[in-house]
Every structure is written in structure tokens, then in C-alpha cells.
Amino acid sequence: MMNEYIKHIRKKVLRSLCNSFPTLVTKLLYYRRFGKRLNLKQPKTFNEKLQWLKLNTYKNNLLVTQCADKYKVREYIKKNTL
């Protein structure tokens, strides 16, 4: 019972942190996963470049959001094919 409550609170805190500080959370998760610092100023590895795209380009691009959904991308393809 208490474990479920703690998990619920933890998820809410992480979600609010992600919305407020996306770059910081991305850097922390990257360090936790790969054991090295994320270089967003001059990304060299494929993963660093993906994180840069996620934070700088994809966030505000509606086409990327639409193409990430398998049903919406089908509609997009039908609409834009010759």
C-alpha cells in the first residue's frame, strides 16, 4: 500500500520536473543510463544527436508528433500520396 503511494508521488514529481526542466532531466537520465555527461553544445555520438533533436527540433514540430502515432501517420500518407 505504502509502496504504491510512493510510486504514485514519485511519478508525479518526475512528470512535473520533465515539464519544467526538460534539458536537466534529459541530462540526468542520460548520465544515469550511459555513465557519461551529455554534450548538447557539440553532440558527437548518435545518442547525443538524438537528444539534441528531441530538445531543440522535435518538441515543436507537429509533423514529428503526427508521424510518431501509427494511426495518424497512415492518414498522413493517404492524404499526401500521389
What does this structure look like?
The protein has 82 residues and is an all-alpha fold. It has one domain (2-80). Helix content is 74%, strand content 0%. It has helices at residues 2-20, 22-34, 46-56, 62-68, 70-80. Helix 1 (2-20) packs across helix 2. The longest helix has 19 residues, at 2-20. The chain is flat, with a radius of gyration of 17 Å. It starts with a helix and ends with a helix. The relative contact order is 0.07. The model has no long low-confidence stretch (mean pLDDT 90). It comes from Proteus mirabilis. This is O antigen biosynthesis protein.
DSSP strand count = 0
SSE run:
HHHHH
Largest sheet: none
State the helical fraction. over 70%
Q: In the residues, how many domains can be counted? A: 1
Strand content: under 5%
Low-confidence stretches: none
The overall pLDDT, averaged over residues, is 90
Main structural class: mainly alpha
Count of DSSP helices? 5
* CA-based gyration radius: 17 Å
Q: State the distance separating the first and last CA atoms.
A: 56 Å
Give the CA-based shape: flat
Helices, strands, pairings?
Elements: H1 2-20, H2 22-34, H3 46-56, H4 62-68, H5 70-80
Helix pairs in contact: 1-2
Keywords:
mainly alpha
Offer a quick outline of the entry:
By secondary structure, the protein is an all-alpha fold.
